[in-house]
Specification:
The longest helix has 51 residues. The chain is mainly alpha-helical and 678 residues long. It is 59% helix and 6% strand.
Length: 678
């Protein structure tokens, strides 16, 4: 747009959009739906780009595709490439090797503007990623660039033949088709739909339709549209959450709100508010701020380690603002104002596309290579340490069950002496050492209200043991499977992830209370019909429970639920065993083991945890029920400390679940304890 035609309120709207996104990612209360800022950006982009295409077609009778992509290159590539390079450099310096290789791959996909395809294929949960990628926010840039692979070509082909009205009809058809697909896809596969260009295209097309209309509302209509549009955006920010199916039809709310604000014109009261200088400046740097904020939100707190989450996030956001101002001034503007020799003039800017790819892909390759080199160096240093230091022999005497406590104390001794991570553990993908890999058909997942038809142990045996609980029951299936085969009993898993067998209130974000209750009802019916010889139950202590409910504290809720459930079990089976829970650890095990300065001491955790305190409540609740209680923390902790590495074995694969190999290792000792109980 020319200076005369430029609408300053558009910059203010950009500021609002990026502000909502940053606020949501920073965890500011009442802005959980701030992800709709991206939808505002999509509408703005469709509106502005289509306005330029229409003007070019009107003035020259055609659309220049090379000029279009040269402008896009100057606009988006310099800052986007800079952030990729800086983040990869930081990753090589600070991130664990497990995350380093992932970051390199994610950065490469981002450079090709295929991040949305990559994250959808990986099944990334946008709102609850297990390990947030510092490049996850590039998904929206990818959606835009994929849209603009098609849009200018359509303008070139259709405008000269169909004119503005014909192109408007095409835009409307695309918008309707995309909206229909978005509603369908969001219902069928919300993870993929969130990142999908076809499911998001209607938002860009909505802005394009407004540009094709070319008019502006006046008088009272302008005021109402402006206020209504602002209310739609603010309302969706406050009301929407990660539980909201999105995009689907719900994205229409911020989409139409943005359309209404733009249609209200530059003289509406809302437009004048958006045009104030501070907002306009934030709008100017909004692209850089969007690029910088997410890596700093994800990586900043773990670098700062100030001991105060709010302070860490405040410093991270402030750093993002500073970097955004600098990159806007010294990176974006020189390219946009054609002040960079050879690269920012005319069609020569097209060379920025291959240059950006070479830089990003090359940096990713170097980052991956460095990760491999660093791992080899750490392995060599670890091998030298173990060769120079005496390590106690903890093998069980007379070939009996492992002396787990002796092994744990030996591991603590090695940690206290500065022992490194053993070479055999370095590079091991412990996230694959999980019970679900072996027993993936033996549990109910999120969305399921009935368990799987699965029998383990000695499947022909008459004696039956039911193992009931959530994923913390599931992680012991390896042990019960082995013990059943060895001791002649069959094992029936009654397991649902995230759902304790005890009738407590559930506040998890991946599952409703009704879903968990329905599974509990199904489980109770199954146990009645199964009539097992023994029932073993366990769960992660007090997971997802409210602090208070129906006048009871969390401990009181848990105690009452455990006791009532065990009493019901006792009416079904004479033998009921409740396994205590293992404590959660203070870190992501894979990251801790592969961190640049990691050693065994840095990966220790204290026994003190919610699970430990919950065990005390559980044990107290069992008094008088004639059910047996088994302390499982003896298998992972000694002297109130819990080593992550014992010998050459890793105990946890995530913050609360034991590795399958460690469970198998302690199974003989668990069997000795359980034999008289089941």
């Amino acid at each position: 747009m020319s200076a005369k035609q430029w609408r300053t309120d558009v910059q203010g709207l950009r500021a609002i959009a990026v502000g909502l996104v940053v606020a949501a990612h920073a965890g500011i209360p009442h802005t959980e739906g701030g992800f709709v800022g991206v939808d505002v950006f999509f509408v703005l982009s469709g509106f502005l780009i289509t306005t330029l295409l229409l003007r070019e077609a009107g003035e020259s009778g055609t659309v220049s595709i090379p000029q279009f992509y040269a402008r896009r290159a100057r606009r988006i590539l310099p800052a986007a490439t800079l952030v990729i390079l800086v983040v990869l450099a930081y990753a090589a310096w600070q991130l664990p090797t497990t995350r380093l290789t992932d970051a390199a791959a994610d950065g490469t996909w981002a450079a090709f503007f295929l991040a949305n395809v990559h994250f959808a294929a990986e099944g990334v949960q946008y709102f609850q990623p297990s390990e947030p990628s510092p490049f996850q926010h590039y998904w929206s840039l990818s959606v835009e660039e994929q849209f603009y692979l098609v849009w200018p070509v359509l303008a070139l082909l259709l405008m000269p033949r169909l004119g503005r009205k014909g192109f408007t009809v095409v835009a409307a058809v695309i918008a309707v088709a995309s909206l229909a697909w978005s509603v369908y896809a969001t219902g069928e596969n919300p993870t993929a739909a969130y990142f999908s260009t076809p499911a998001r295209a209607y938002e860009l097309a909505a802005g394009a339709l407004l540009a094709c209309w070319g008019g502006r509302l006046k008088g009272a209509a302008s005021v109402v549209a402006g206020l209504g549009g602002a209310a739609a955006i603010v309302g969706s920010t406050v009301v929407f959450s990660e539980a909201t199916p999105f995009p689907g039809w719900q994205a229409l709310v911020p989409t139409l709100g943005t359309v209404a604000l733009l249609a209200s014109g530059a003289n509406a009261p809302t437009a004048r508010l958006l045009a104030v200088r501070p907002l306009r400046y934030v709008g100017d740097i909004s692209y850089s701020l969007y690029l910088w904020h997410w890596p700093l939100v994800v990586l900043g707190p773990e670098l700062l380690r100030l001991g105060n989450a709010a302070l860490e996030m405040t410093v991270s956001v402030a750093a993002a603002l500073l970097l955004s101002a600098l990159s806007h001034r010294f990176v974006e503007l020189p390219f946009q104002h054609k002040q960079v020799p050879m690269l920012s003039h005319g069609l020569r800017s097209l060379v920025l596309w291959p240059v950006a790819l070479v830089l990003a892909v090359g940096s990713g390759w170097l980052t991956t290579g460095y990760a491999a080199y660093a791992e080899k160096e750490r392995a060599a240093q670890a091998q030298a340490w173990f060769a120079a230091n005496e390590v106690p022999d903890t093998a069980a005497e007379t070939g009996g069950p492992p002396q787990v406590q002796r092994e744990l104390r030996a591991a603590l001794d090695i940690a206290d002496r500065g022992g490194p991570i053993p070479p055999a553990v370095l590079g091991e993908d412990i996230t694959e050492d999980r019970w679900q890999k072996t027993y993936g058909d033996c549990y109910a997942n999120y969305g399921d209200t009935r368990g799987a038809d699965c029998t383990l142990g000695d499947t022909d045996a008459e004696k039956t043991v039911a193992v009931v609980g959530d994923s913390h029951a599931g992680m012991w299936l390896t042990a019960f499977d082995d013990l059943g085969k060895e001791n002649g009993f069959r094992v029936v898993p009654v397991v649902k992830v995230g759902c304790a067998p005890y009738p407590v209130q559930h506040r998890g974000k991946k599952m409703t209370q009704a879903e968990c209750d329905d599974f509990r009802d199904w489980s109770a019916d199954l146990l009645e019909r199964l009539d097992p010889d023994a029932i073993v139950s366990t769960a992660r202590g007090q997971l997802f429970m409210p602090k208070t409910y129906d006048g009871m504290s969390r401990d009181e809720q848990w105690s009452q639920a455990v006791r009532s459930t065990v009493q019901a079990y006792r009416e079904i089976s004479r033998k009921v065993v409740v396994l205590g829970d293992v404590p959660s650890v203070d870190h992501n095990p894979a990251d801790c083991l592969s961190a640049p300065e990691a050693d065994q001491l840095s990966c220790l955790s204290d026994r003190d945890s919610r699970e430990t305190s919950s065990n005390e409540v559980t044990e107290e609740a069992l008094k008088g029920t004639r059910a047996a209680y088994v302390d499982t923390q003896r298998f992972v902790c000694a002297e109130d400390r819990c080593p992550l590495v014992v010998g050459e074995k890793v105990t946890y694969y995530d913050d609360s679940h034991l590795t399958e190999s460690w469970v198998r290792h302690v199974t003989p000792r668990l069997g000795v304890i359980l034999e008289p109980l089941i």
